[in-house]
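Researcher: We're teaching a course module on how sequence relates to structure. For the next exercise, students receive a sequence and then see the predicted structure as tokens, so they can try to spot secondary structure elements on their own. Here is the exercise chain.
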Amino acid sequence: MSSSSSSSSSSSSSAGGATAGMTATGTGASLRGGGNYELASVIISPELGERVLISAKKAVLIEIFPELQDAIQECRDFSWNLDSQHVIRFPVNGYCKLNSLQVLQRLLNNGFQLMASNASNGIDGQQFSEYLLGRCS
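Model: And here is the predicted structure for the students to work with:
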């Protein structure tokens, strides 16, 4: 079980979420059974209507959400801009009019599969749901 906690921190830069049983590689993550995966983490919180945050490779987000291309490429100084290849907790519905179901539907329609989910009452009663999705690359 100790390997899952170390692998979680190594792949958090590519997905932004918990990934027990996965390790980071150059193109995505690798399951213990083999095969490379591209990961995306979607966090949904009901504060002020609905807030949808996504963490993934920039190229994957631009492929699936072309309407976000300008926002992802031009905004280099924002906290969600992790490095030149990844974004973490990118506020999707701050830049386009997609709700959580539409975001999840687009990911699923583009070959992603639900790998894990979590719903929680966080600090100070904040509620959120997090979904980890992956697809073979």
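Model: If you want an answer key for the exercise: Helices lie at 2-15, 58-64, 69-74, 100-109. The chain has four helices and seven strands.
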